[in-house]
């Protein structure tokens, strides 16, 4: 009972950081596939692009983002969280401005890069890394709570932004998103971490006690603090990579091309948007469940398992033209999406320590961005050549089962 009470106390003792992480994950939305996909048809029409061509542009911009974040993701280890967050938010404002004013291929690619890097990349990286660095025994629950920012975006933004686009046009909608980031996100979240100096001071005091340069882990009992280079030489990292990549690849492909998938299946697009509430509810429930399990059993035990709900999603994509299959797709993908953040983020801290977490997490973020970059282009090319949604469903099942097997083999001895 004392242990439960103590963990609850730790979780709520720094509620400002927890709220900061949750709102930062929500603020990453303009760079997430979910939001960009809402502009898919308008952008393709304005620039006369096919599914494959727009997917390729998205891939190029996202791949560059993945490369750059290997450098920019380390900044959170070196500079004050407040400064890194402020620069990231201003970058996201610039991204929205460029997206709304783009007139050609170069400006479109620049807009997509800025959106992906400052939104999906750095803003997400900041939200997840900050919480997992400063929390210790309740990382699973804290990560699950922060993950609700993504869920809130998934539940509310499709209908909201779709209505905004209809009312004022797609270009003006980007300007509105940039204005919200500048006028509301930046001052509110900076206020939440105004006392960050004291928080970071406590963290430095803790790390000085666990300094493995002066006391060996096997002697002190302290966790080994891996560097990025050491992690890249660890076979477990490559074993879990497929299960880390799978949700990013499959979820991005589904959301980016959801309009085409829904139409090709004969489903109703408005029903899809309404049932995103089921996606959100599933994500919340499974995220919290995974967070509780991570704190009890550790993230390692869940790494081979958390993507398995997407098998049901693949089977639902192989279903018929009834709108009931939409429910199966969104609930199963929502479950996997919810568990992804609650399991993978604590995994890196649990296995490799927190001293170089920004640098290590930057690699994980980069590979997830890489997967999300490849997915729209590959899916778009497949759709352009006539490959159907049921075939995509079968691809989902194969990828998920193979990735889970790789993670199980890599972690079974540890």
The largest sheet is: none
Mean pLDDT equals 85
Number-wise, the strands total 0
Order of helices and strands: HHHHHHHHHHHHHHHHHHHH
Whole-number total of structural domains: 1
Characterise this structure.
The protein is mostly helical and 414 residues long. It has one domain (14-204, 228-411): Growth Hormone, Chain: A, CATH 1.20.1250. Helices cover 82% and strands 0% of the residues. It is built from 20 helices and no strands. The protein has helices at residues 2-13, 15-27, 33-36, 40-47, 51-72, 75-78, 81-101, 105-134, 139-168, 170-192, 196-209, 217-220, 228-232, 235-256, 258-265, 269-297, 309-317, 324-352, 357-384, 389-411. Helix 8 (105-134) runs antiparallel to helix 9 (139-168). The protein starts with a helix and ends with a helix. The model is unreliable at 1-5 and 212-221 (pLDDT under 50).
Q: What's the structural blueprint in terms of helices and strands?
A:
Elements: H1 2-13, H2 15-27, H3 33-36, H4 40-47, H5 51-72, H6 75-78, H7 81-101, H8 105-134, H9 139-168, H10 170-192, H11 196-209, H12 217-220, H13 228-232, H14 235-256, H15 258-265, H16 269-297, H17 309-317, H18 324-352, H19 357-384, H20 389-411
Helix pairs in contact: 2-8, 2-9, 2-10, 5-8, 5-19, 7-8, 7-10, 8-9, 8-18, 8-19, 9-10, 9-16, 9-18, 14-19, 14-20, 16-18, 17-18, 17-20
Write a concise keyword list for the protein shown above.
414 residues, mainly alpha, Growth Hormone, Chain: A, 20 helices, 82% helix, 0% strand, disordered N terminus
């Amino acid at each position: 009972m004392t242990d439960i009470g103590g963990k609850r106390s730790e979780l709520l003792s720094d509620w400002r950081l927890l709220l900061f992480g949750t709102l930062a994950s929500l603020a990453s939305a303009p760079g997430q596939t979910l939001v960009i996909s809402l502009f898919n048809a308008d952008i393709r029409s304005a620039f006369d692009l096919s599914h494959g061509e727009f997917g390729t542009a998205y891939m190029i911009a996202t791949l560059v983002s993945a490369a750059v974040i290997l450098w920019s993701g380390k900044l959170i280890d070196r500079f004050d969280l407040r400064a890194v967050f402020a620069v990231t938010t201003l970058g996201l404002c610039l991204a929205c401005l460029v997206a709304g004013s783009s007139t050609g291929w170069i400006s479109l690619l620049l807009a997509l890069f800025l959106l992906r890097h400052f939104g999906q990349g750095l803003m997400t990286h900041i939200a997840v890394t900050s919480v997992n660095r400063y929390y210790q025994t309740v990382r699973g629950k804290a990560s699950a709570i922060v993950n609700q920012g993504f869920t809130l975006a998934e539940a509310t933004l499709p209908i909201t932004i779709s209505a905004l686009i209809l009312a004022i046009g797609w270009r003006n909608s980007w300007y509105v998103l940039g204005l919200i980031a500048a006028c509301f996100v930046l001052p509110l979240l900076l206020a939440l971490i105004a006392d960050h100096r004291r928080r970071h001071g406590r963290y430095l005091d803790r790390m000085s006690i666990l300094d493995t340069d002066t006391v060996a882990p096997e002697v002190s009992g302290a966790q080994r603090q891996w560097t990025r280079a050491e992690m890249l030489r660890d076979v477990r990292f490559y074993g879990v990579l497929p299960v880390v990549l799978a949700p990013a690849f499959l979820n991005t492909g589904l959301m980016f091309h959801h309009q085409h998938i829904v139409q090709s299946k004969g489903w109703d697009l408005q029903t899809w948007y309404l049932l995103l509430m089921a996606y959100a509810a599933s994500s919340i429930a499974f995220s919290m469940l995974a967070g509780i399990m991570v704190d009890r059993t550790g993230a390692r035990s869940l790494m081979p398992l958390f993507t398995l709900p997407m098998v049901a999603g693949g089977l639902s994509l192989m279903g018929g033209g009834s709108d009931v299959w939409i429910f199966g797709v969104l609930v199963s993908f929502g479950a996997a999406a919810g568990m992804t953040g609650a399991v993978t983020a604590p995994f890196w801290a649990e296995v490799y320590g927190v001293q170089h977490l920004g640098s290590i997490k930057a690699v994980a973020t980069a590979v997830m961005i890489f997967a999300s970059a490849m997915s729209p282009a590959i899916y778009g090319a497949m759709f352009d050549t006539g490959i159907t949604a049921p075939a995509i469903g079968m691809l989902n099942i194969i990828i998920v089962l193979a990735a889970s097997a790789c993670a199980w083999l890599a972690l079974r001895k540890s």
